[in-house]
Amino acid sequence: MIRFTNVCMKFHGRAVLKDFTLEIPSGETAVILGGSGGGKTTMLRLILGLLRPDSGSIRVDGQELVGLPERDMVPIRARMAMVFQGSALFDSLTVRENVGYRLYEERALPEDAIERKIIESLCFVGLEDTLEKMPAELSGGMKKRVAIARALACSPEVILYDEPTAGLDPINTHLVNELIRRLQKEERLTQVVVTHDLETAYRVADRLIMIHRGDKLFDGTVDMLKRADDPRIRTFLRPHEVLATPGCFPDKDGGIRVVAPTLDEETPT
């Protein structure tokens, strides 16, 4: 279980999370939705202990992370894996070496066991035939699937995803979404997916949490989100409806402002 209690976080005086409280039960896939700069990726870094909040509590399976010495974070991070937005593969290593990188570094398993883990993980994402390929030989979608295989190879209890379908075409978006769903269904992993892609959010989420300028606007199911009446949520979900008026823009407080034309219209003669 991942629990945030009254977490506050500022960067350069700007509030990124405001008195933020959240609970993600074990085995659940939670999607964190929101616009750019809204605090979504900051949440992942806080869960990993890469950032420390200004105040509040963050617990993973009952273990308080705030104030924990770096050496005590190591076993907690060992139970987690991260899938980065840009895949973050090592260009100089083969797919085999990328997927097994953490296992080779930790040296907790014999080499034949590591090899089995690598192959099993690549089979799960449908890329078992790419073992000796270099990242430069892979498409963007294949790189993202290799990144998921690398996360899976470490047998994590928690996987964190930062914009897992960003920049992917519809086919690869579908493939990545289905992999996230399978991991939840077959492995019962706890997953936290940060995205602003509604297709991904609707497809993979057990629960949706929406953040706006550091505040939690919503916490519930997909159906509940679609029925929400908050203007900030409606603008995010259906901008083509809410902002249909020419010169109409979302205001920072969630309201709507209309900018009048600056050029005088010609008067017909």
Briefly say what this structure is.
This protein is α/β, with parallel strands linked by helices and 269 residues long. The chain is built from 11 helices and 12 strands. The longest helix is centred in the middle third of the chain and has 18 residues.
Describe this entry's structure for a reader.
- The protein has 269 residues and is α/β, with parallel strands linked by helices.
- The chain folds into two domains: 24-51 and 63-79 and 157-269, Rossmann fold; 94-155, no CATH class.
- It is 36% helix and 25% strand.
- The protein has eleven helices and twelve strands.
- The protein has helices spanning 40-47, 70-77, 95-99, 101-106, 111-124, 140-153, 170-187, 198-204, 222-227, 231-237, 239-242; strands spanning 2-11, 14-24, 29-33, 55-60, 63-64, 80-83, 158-162, 190-195, 207-212, 215-220, 248-250, 256-258.
- The strands form three sheets. It has a six-stranded mixed beta sheet, sandwiched between helices. A four-stranded antiparallel beta sheet has the order 2-1-4-5, covered by helices on one side. Strands 11-12 form a two-stranded antiparallel sheet.
- The model is unreliable at 265-269 (pLDDT under 50).
